[in-house]
Design goal:
By secondary structure, the protein is of the alpha/beta class. 35% of the residues lie in helices and 16% in strands.
Length: 317
């Protein structure tokens, strides 16, 4: 991956976003779900709760179902009190992780890099089997008259078109798609107006399917899941381009988890995630909701190139 030219990404959302983030109570807030267990011999106060969160990249109903199930499974496996703590946007999960309101979080590649920058010693525990070589898709409404292409240079065809990204700090829905646009020599100013920011991948798909935008950037896994669900009419949507691969989503854990919840907790969390494919029906459902067959070990170094992209774009302090 070559170093991209600077693009119009601002770190103001990361640096100032905390002003708009609701404070997460020590034991979770409204809408939190999860299970409780015993003290587990760690000597911590009985009220200590292991907070789990995730970037809100899809429909909240699906996220509540998925991460509520994860919280229940972690509680059962570790004998800890565990709660899923939903957040309003990508910046919120980074700040909650930094404050220690969240101890284990499902991050995108960019939000994970941002969180590790703010919390030295935070570690990528696991990623899905699809995350080491993740892809973005550029999709278009058929009314735009655009034809699929196989090379990054084909993105120049988007000049003069309306385009929506997902969240402003989404790896697969904003950062990397814009990086590939830069590689092709297509700037934001070449589009048919300022880009939209739908806030999530499924919202991007719906915006393109409805014709609200001619083109959208979306992650491949959500696109595949949307096709399989059959709940959105995609008859007027065509996939224009499948991007080159990059490292993306992963579980990130705070460095103080063993101190707070007892020695070996970090390892137990990792073992749980890596062993989901060997479990029963509940574990199989979790993997299905994640769109994966298994979790594999993640390596912080796998995100070095992504960190370079983010740093070049002013997204890291």
């Amino acid at each position: 991956m070559t170093r991209p030219a600077a693009v119009e990404l601002s770190r103001r959302h990361l640096l100032l976003g905390a002003l708009a983030v609701p404070v997460l109570a020590a034991c979770g807030g409204p809408g939190a779900s999860g299970s409780s267990g015993g003290a587990g011999g760690s000597g911590r106060a009985p009220s200590t709760v292991l907070g789990i969160s995730a970037i809100p990249d899809q429909d909240p109903e699906k996220l509540n179902r998925l991460y509520g199930a994860v919280a229940d499974r972690v509680a059962a496996a570790t004998d800890l009190r565990v709660e899923y703590r939903p957040v309003t946007d990508y910046t919120a999960v980074v700040r909650a992780f930094q404050r220690g309101d969240v101890h284990l979080s499902w991050m995108g590649g960019l939000t994970g890099v941002q969180a590790r920058e703010l919390v030295p010693g935070a570690t990528a525990l696991a990623q899905r089997d699809i995350d080491a070589d993740f892809r973005s898709l550029f999709i278009a409404n058929r009314s735009a008259g655009l034809e699929p292409f196989d090379d990054v240079s084909g993105l120049t065809a988007l000049a003069g078109r309306s385009l929506t990204f997902g969240s402003e700090t989404s790896t697969s829905g904003r950062l990397m798609p814009q990086y590939f646009m830069d590689q092709a020599g297509l700037s934001i100013d070449d589009l048919g107006g300022p880009p939209g920011f739908s806030g999530s991948h499924d919202a991007t798909i719906e915006a393109v399917a409805s014709g609200a935008f001619e083109v959208g950037a979306v992650n491949e896994q959500v696109w595949t899941a949307t096709q399989e669900a059959g709940e959105v009419d995609l008859s007027d949507v065509v996939v224009l381009f499948r991007s080159p691969g990059y490292a993306d989503y992963h579980w990130l854990v705070r460095p103080d988890v063993d101190d707070v919840f007892g020695a070996g907790t970090t390892r137990r969390l990792q073992d749980l995630l890596l062993g989901l494919q060997d479990g029963g029906a509940e574990e199989a459902e979790i993997l299905e909701l994640f769109g994966a067959e298994s979790f594999i070990e993640a390596d912080d170094a796998a995100y070095d190139e992504l960190e370079e992209v983010a740093r070049a774009q002013g997204l890291l302090e």
